[in-house]
Structure formats: structure tokens, C-alpha cells
Amino acid sequence: MALRYGDDVILMLEDGSTYLIKLKEDSQLGTHRGNIRHSDLIGKNYGDVVDVDKTRVYTLKPTMVDYIFKMKRKTQIVYPKDSGFVLLMLDIKEGDRVIDAGVGSGAMCGLLARYVGESGKVFAYERREEFMEIAKKNIERWGLMDRVEFKLKDIGEGFDEENIDAFFLDVPDPAPYIESVWKVLKGSGRLAVLCPTTNQVQSVVERMNEVGFIRIEVWENLFRQYKPNPKRLRPFDKMVAHTAYLVFGMKINQEGKGS
Amino acid sequence: MALRYGDDVILMLEDGSTYLIKLKEDSQLGTHRGNIRHSDLIGKNYGDVVDVDKTRVYTLKPTMVDYIFKMKRKTQIVYPKDSGFVLLMLDIKEGDRVIDAGVGSGAMCGLLARYVGESGKVFAYERREEFMEIAKKNIERWGLMDRVEFKLKDIGEGFDEENIDAFFLDVPDPAPYIESVWKVLKGSGRLAVLCPTTNQVQSVVERMNEVGFIRIEVWENLFRQYKPNPKRLRPFDKMVAHTAYLVFGMKINQEGKGS
Amino acid sequence: MALRYGDDVILMLEDGSTYLIKLKEDSQLGTHRGNIRHSDLIGKNYGDVVDVDKTRVYTLKPTMVDYIFKMKRKTQIVYPKDSGFVLLMLDIKEGDRVIDAGVGSGAMCGLLARYVGESGKVFAYERREEFMEIAKKNIERWGLMDRVEFKLKDIGEGFDEENIDAFFLDVPDPAPYIESVWKVLKGSGRLAVLCPTTNQVQSVVERMNEVGFIRIEVWENLFRQYKPNPKRLRPFDKMVAHTAYLVFGMKINQEGKGS
Amino acid sequence: MALRYGDDVILMLEDGSTYLIKLKEDSQLGTHRGNIRHSDLIGKNYGDVVDVDKTRVYTLKPTMVDYIFKMKRKTQIVYPKDSGFVLLMLDIKEGDRVIDAGVGSGAMCGLLARYVGESGKVFAYERREEFMEIAKKNIERWGLMDRVEFKLKDIGEGFDEENIDAFFLDVPDPAPYIESVWKVLKGSGRLAVLCPTTNQVQSVVERMNEVGFIRIEVWENLFRQYKPNPKRLRPFDKMVAHTAYLVFGMKINQEGKGS
Predict the structure, then answer these.
(1) Would B98 be classed as within a structural domain?
(2) Helix B129-141 vs helix B107-116: angle between axes, to the nearest 10 degrees?
(3) Which of B89, B117, B187 sits opposite A46 (nearest CB)?
(4) DSSP string spanning C197-208?
(5) pLDDT, tens digit, for every residue of C149-204?
(6) What CATH number does the domain containing A18 carry?
(7) Is the pLDDT of residue D158 over 50?
(8) Does D191 score more than 90 pLDDT?
(9) Which residue of B has its CA nearest to C243?
(10) For residue A218, is it within any domain?
């Protein structure tokens, strides 16, 4: 599995800085530690420690998390701290048919597409063309275009699908769309709504109760990273304090909790 | 998709209590709200609201998270709050060959098996036969036995595989095994170690540095759930304060950071 | 400073359980480890390790936090995790004249009384007589009655004081009282409002803006305790996830931010 | 209480920026919104809203927390999130004799001095003269010099006092001093140790057990601030993730838990 032109590589320098590149002939990467010629990496393996001129470089295989943090984007992304939990709470699995609205730069869309497998499908709604174009480029780079059907559309007009297994809703004002979401979900289908503010959580939970969702859960998570120094183990000084509240529920085949 | 004998169902009562059952002829479920005959649920759909005698029941499709919380177990499980993040950090995907050591009751093993797909494989090491038997029953119920190779073995003797994509290490004292883990991983392969104590984090990180891992990251996460009352939105009074620290790293093809 | 009849003592057994007693003649304390006669403790010192029959007992001097956790109460108390921060944000100091509404069981009232000193005063409003009686007993035990003026009164009728330095507001629905609070505070006077729900925070902050407060800050805090085992240092499994949000502000001598 | 020359004032501009000044004749404050002449503020009151040229200014009374955040310093300060809790756990009150080692820039020393009152005393140890000088200037500005006895001294030589009520230990490597601390404390006296790393917590707790402390508690706290927008209530994006672990204990009059 020696590296060849066309391969994606994460290059990590000794100071921990990383670069995601696709190996190309006659190309070089400019870094604050000097230039690295792509040709010097051909034939190396993932995991190798390469001395290029005066710079030591680690050649690593990009993970999906790498791609997400390095991708082109114009929107706030869904962080791994949230997306991993959402995948489990939405019970995403091979063959699932999932709606992702709105797509933004495509980070969550890519993860959903990865985990629905070849037999599944992600219907990706986005209202703004400039975001959609970025998302498409990202999904294409990840080789997942076959699994995603993009829809440049305002979701105020409703959704085209039915019998959807799981729904990820990440739009500026989600409460008005809860009823449309309910309609396209299967019975017992799972919904996740990403809400930046407590006000949105309040209106979304109220609407989910009215429309016909149960097992409504509201979560937030705080991820804290430690300095990996075994002699002085302690958290980093700062952390992300908030991305969004996560609201989950399951559709019942009757409005408003059957009450 | 009407419910038939043999189907798994989550029954939820109006007080929120849930039961995971497999529909069987001539069976009934005893609850604190009275008995529910399985035969009364045949022909219903997932998501239905069923009035059985004086009890209202919701018939829901079990998710993997439901199975994990309802499964038989004799060990501490890896919580969804941790496992979702581990899946992303280990970059688990179709076709991956992964080692899970030790298996315990099989919660993480099941998730790994789900996400490596049919072309992937999980090698599941466990030293204690009683845990292994429980894990096997759980994996079998989830229909994932084809993807898991169980190994009743003390990992002190090393691992049988090579060129492993990702490794999940969850044993009482992990530091002594870091070198064996390094040997079986591919270059750039991902490792996740679950460490309940700070002392373990210290020894694991030290060992990972010595043996040849980079991008070492140490995380912990706090998940907080809110009472889903839109008029009085606030967190529940108590929460899980700690399960484990999560240590991640990537193998380089040279010992000790090449230093 | 040998212990005498009339002294308060915290007795701690070897299992960590604690008892707050006042030493009395001919009295004994019944514990799950046997009876402890008060007379056996006379002449001992704070900090002593005393073997009484088969039980080892530590004789400790009660702290204010001990008194608060051991006091008689019928209401939720303000926890030290919150009250210490409130004291600083309210800038409580010798000579301050402070209003505490509602008093509840008197935990916060006692702390305020302690720190305003002999030249300060706490005006303690409480609507329910049964709570007031408990608060009085607690304040009396702490020897702080001279510094507290109790008022059995519904605060809907307003407050009797003026030129108040600091105000602690802890009532079920605080927003309607913000204007009355503003009236009795000095210019630049400090307000702290304890709000269990996000809905209350929203209405209180909105009202504070309208009425004439600046430097409005909203905080919450998570305190996490570790098992004090140096070989296996890790947090306890569970923690308090939420007590209340803390809203702070300073009065300006003009309504609504002067806008 | 009109403002006069010599008074301390916090000036807050409309964008929330604050300045701590002492009013002086013929002085002015340069801000990014223009200059503010001190003379324009004479005769105003705390809490006033003053229009100076084109700038709106709020004249506020500085709190101790203001002084701490605005003071001159060369060291990391103890944050209010930690210091408020420490004050309660150390049970600081009028008349207490307290040791503060090392003093650093004097933030904690000032708080201790404020709350021990006129009849109490803080013995403030600091090894580095440059820090001591800064701390003295800060304590002087707060008018608390009568209550503090400064000691320019390496605490490796021990402490000069005895029968100390409470001890605050905040030095780079605290474990070696635990025994000296024990010697100067009263029976049942309270100790708080500030430990940035988990390794320090481990060694401090171990030493406290050996030397003769009980009720050993280890805490950390996470304070999270919300954007005070009632229509979009949510936490700020970033927060302080870690300052230090707080270790507490009480002295018993016998070594090593009397075991």
C-alpha cells in the first residue's frame, strides 16, 4: 500500500500542525517549516516518519474527522462530539433512508452517507445554492455521491420522500418544520434536532409533543481535552462551552401522544 | 411491515417505562400496569398506540442503544456518550478489521460489528468465559455473528492478527499491552483506550509515546440531559459525572515518535 | 480550648458518617456503630481521635457548611457551590445592608449575616411562616440574630428599605419583582437572582434590561468531586447536574440602560 | 455620596468595556471611544449614566472582583469561581488567623483579609520579592494592610505561626509542605490546596493521609456563562475548562488518621 499520486495524505509536522493533501506530480506543500515536495512521499507508507530536507513529516491516512475539520466550508459544522452521539441516537445503519435538512457544508451528511452503506440513501435538503455546491464537493471527495440525493429546496414546501427511517434537522428556526418531518417519517422513526438556543429547545419540544413524538430527550454535552503530558496531566485551559442542544424523539402513528 | 411473531419490539407505557420483548405465541408481559398479551400486538405497526385492557402501550422498533441498555450483562458497558465518539475517532467504516479487547458484555463489540459492515471483521478478545458467553448471546441477538471472531484468551499472550485498522482497548490495566497493540496495527492505524482513572491515563500516554504513537489525545465528556418540559426547561438534578477518560492515538512505523 | 457542655461538635466515625451535636450532660448519641456518651468527650479537643467503646470518633469543629448541611430545613437550600460565588458577585462585606428574599430555611441568610459583620444588616423576607420559623431557629443557633431582621411578608407588597447594597432574590417566579428590587437598591447596587429554569432566566434578564440593570451576567456551575484515592484518582460516578442558573446585575440610576 | 477626587470608579462604556480609575484633578482617561475627563464625573453618583462628549459612560462602584481582575499582577490569579468556594470550605470568618502561601499577586490574600475582619489576621508567605511587592500594592489599595502580615520567605524553612485556623496553599509543588502545614494548624483546622495537575492531587492526597488530615475532599468546578440575550439564550461558545483542582482537609491531632 505504498503511497501513489492521487492518494490523500495527512502530513503532520513535529509541532503537531497538520495538512491534508492529495499527492500530485510536480507539486509541493509550503509550510512554516519549509517546502515538502509530493514526489518525496511517493512510495512511502501511511504511518511513516519521513525526513524531508530539515523537516520531519509523518504521513498519515486521513480519517473522516480529518476530512471534516479540513474541508471547505461556509457554515458552522456539526462537531464530532455531537455527530457521534446523533448517529447512535438516530440508530443509523446499513440500508437506512435518512433526510438531512439543511445540509450546510455537508459534514453530517457525509457521516450519514458513510453509515447508511451502499443500500441506504441520504436525502440532503439545502436552500442556499452556495452551501449546496460546497457540500457536493465535499461529499464527492469522500466518494459518497452515490448515496446522497441533493435537493436545492426550501423545506417550507415540505419533503418529497416518505417512510423515512431517520431525520436530522439542523436549520435556523426548526419548530415550524416539525409537522412536515412527522409526515415523512416511518412509525417509530427517529428525529434529531440541533438547537443552538434554549428558546428553540422550548418551541421544538412543545411542537414535538403536539405533533406526535415520544421518547423526547434533550441533551447537551461538554467535551474536555487534556494536555497529553503524563507528568503534568491536566485539561487544556479553554474548551468549547456550547455548540447546540440535541433534541431527540420517535414518531408515533397518532398525533400528540395519542392524548 | 405489520408486527409478526419473532419480531423484537420496545413496549413503552405512558409513564415512560420500556420493555424489550420478542413476540411469541401464547406469551404475555407482566408490567406494573397489568399484563400485555403478545397476541394483542400482532398486526400492529411500529409507532402504533395500542390500548390493551386499561393500559396504553406504544410499540416501538428497538434501536441499537435500546438493545445495549436492555441486554444481559455482567460488566460495566461503554455508554453511547463515549461509544459514538470512539467510533468517529477510530474512523470505523465498511471493510475495517478491528480488535476489541476485552469484550465484556459486548456493547462496543456490537457497535463495531454494525459499522464495519459485511466486508469488515471484529476480533473480540475476552479472558473470562462467563463474559464471553454473554457477549456471544448479545451479538447473536443483534444478528452480527458473521462479523465477529471471538477469542477466549488472555491478551498478555499477544494478538493473532496483523494489519489491523483500529483497536479498542478496554481492560483493567491497559498500559502493559500498548506495545502488543502497536505490533498488530497498520501504519497510521487508530487506537482508543478507555481509562477509568487519571493514573491509567498517565501510564498509557507515557507508554504510547515510548512505543510509537502520535496525535495522542485525551478526552472526557460530560453529557447532561434536560427535563423535556418546554415551560420549565432545565437539566435533570443528577447526571453521570464520569465513566472513563478516552485516550486516542495513531501508530507510526517507528518506535517512540522517531526520536 | 477543651470541649465543655454547650459546645457544638461534629462527630465523624471511621466510615466517614458525621453527626452534629451540642454537648449535654447525661446525653448520648446513638449511631450504627454504637452509643457515644457526651460525657466521654468532655475535656477532649477539636481534632482529637477518641476511642469510645469499640468506636473510633473524630471530634471536629463544625463549619458553616456543616451547619448548613445538618440544619433543619423544609426547602431546597442554596448549595455552597452557588453561595460562595454569589457572595463574591454581590461583593458582600462588613457594613453592607442586604435583602434576602425569600429566606427559605436560612442557609443563604446565614452566610450573608456572617459576612456583613456586626455593622451590617440582612433584611430577610419570607412569605410562609413555617419556613420563617425554621430559618429563625437556624440563624439563632449560628449566633447571628443581631444581624438579621426577619419580615414575614409577601414581597408583592414591595420592600420597606432603601439604599440597599446588595439583593439576593430566590423566589419561585422572580421576574415580577425586579422593578421593586431596583427601587430599593443603591445606585450601582448588586443583584443576584437564582433561577431554576431557562424560562425564568429569559424573563428575568428581559425584565432587568427594561428596568435598569447593567453588567447582566448569567452563570451556571458544575462542581465535580473526585474519589480521594491517590492510586486510582477519578471523579465519583454521579454528580449534581443542576441547581439553578445565577443571574447578576448592577442597578443604574435610570430606567432601561438609559436607552 | 457624590463622587469626589480620590474615589475609585469603574467606568463602563456602552460596548461593555470597563476601566478602573481613581478620580484625580486634571486627569483624563483615554478610551477607544474618546477621552473622558475626571472632572466631568465629580458630583455624579455611583450608578449614574453620564454623557461625556459623544460617549455614554456608566459610573459604577468597584467590587472586589473588579479589583482582582483589574489589579496589577505577574502571576496566575485564583478565579472567583474557585475563591468563593474556598472561602466557604475554609470556613473563613471574623477573627480567624489564616496562612496564605504563596501569595502571588494577592487576589486570594485580599479576599481572606476582607473576611477575617479587623480581629483576624492573614500571614502571607511569598518567596519572590517581585510578587510580594505587587501583592503589597494591591492589598494597600484595598485598604487591608492592617490585617495582613507579609513574610518574604521560602516556606521550605517552615512557618512562624501556630494554632492557625485555616491554611491556603498555592505553590508550584505542594506535597512536600503538607507536614509543615499540619504542624501550624489547630486541631480541626482547615486546609485548602490548589493543584493544577492530577499528579499533584495524587501526591497531595497521599501526603495528607499520611500526615494526619481527614475529610479529604477533591473538587473541580466548571463555570459556564450564558449570553444574556433573552430571545436567544445560550452559553458563550468558549469557557475556561480548567484552573486547578481543589483539595480540602481537616487536621486531626494524631498522625495518619490515627491508624
Answers:
(1) yes
(2) 40
(3) B187
(4) SHHHHHHHHHHH
(5) 999 999 999 999 999 999 999 999 999 999 999 999 999 999 999 999 999 999 99
(6) 3.10.330.20
(7) yes
(8) yes
(9) B237
(10) yes
Contact at CB, A219 and B220, closer than 8 angstroms: no
Residue C31 in domain: yes
Which residue is closest to A248 within chain B, CA to CA?
Answer: B228
Q: Give yes or no: residues B71 and B50 share one domain.
A: no
Q: ipTM for the complex?
A: 0.96
Q: Do B57 and B116 fall within a single domain?
A: no
Is the pLDDT at C257 greater than 90, yes or no?
A: no
A146 Cα to chain B: minimum distance (Å): 15
Per-residue model confidence (pLDDT) at position B75 = 86
Condensed to tens digits (0 to 9), the pLDDT of residues D25-73 reads 999 999 988 899 999 999 999 999 999 878 899 999 999 999 999 998 8
| Model confidence pLDDT, tens digit, residues D203-248 | 999 999 999 999 999 999 999 999 999 999 999 999 999 999 999 9
pLDDT in tens, B58-68: 999 999 999 99
* Partner residue opposite B242 with nearest CB, options C196, C197, C237: C237
Whole-angstrom Cα Rg for chain B: 21
Instruction: State the smallest CA–CA distance between residue C6 and chain B in angstroms.
Output: 38
* Cα-Cα-Cα-Cα dihedral sign, residues D178, D179, D183, D184: negative
Angle between helices D80-89 and D107-116 (to 10 degrees): 40
Mutation site, C195, C200, C201, C202, interface A, largest A CB count within 10 A: C202
Q: What is the pLDDT of residues A42-89, one digit of tens each?
A: 999 999 999 987 889 999 999 999 999 999 888 888 999 999 999 999
Identify the CA nearest to D201 among candidates D222, D179, D229, D178.
Answer: D178
Tell me, what amino acid is at A248?
F
Query: Is C72 found in the same domain as C57?
Result: no
Q: Using DSSP, state whether D3 is helix, strand or coil.
A: coil
From B233, B236, B242, residue closest to C241, measured CB to CB:
B236
Tell me which residue range forms the domain holding B107.
66-258
Q: Which residue of D has its CA nearest to C189?
A: D47
Does residue B53 share a domain with residue B72? no
Q: For residue D198, which residues of chain B lie inside 8 Å, CB to CB?
A: 198, 201-202
Residues of C in contact with A199 (CB under 8 A): 202
Chain segment C47-58, per-residue pLDDT in tens:
999 998 788 999
Size of interface C-D (CB pairs under 8 A): 193
Residue D31 is inside which H or E element, if any? strand D28-31
C154 and C103 within one domain:
yes
Cβ A230–B91 below 8 Å, yes or no? no
C64 contacts D88? CB cut-off 8 A: yes
3-state secondary structure B225-248: EEECCCCCCEECCEEECCCCEEEE
Q: Which residue has the cell 416511518?
A: A186
Chain D nearest C-alpha distance from A209 (Å): 22
Contacts of C252 in chain D (CB under 8 A): 47-49, 58
Instruction: Clarify whether residues A13 and A102 are in a common domain.
Output: no
Per-residue pLDDT at D75:
86
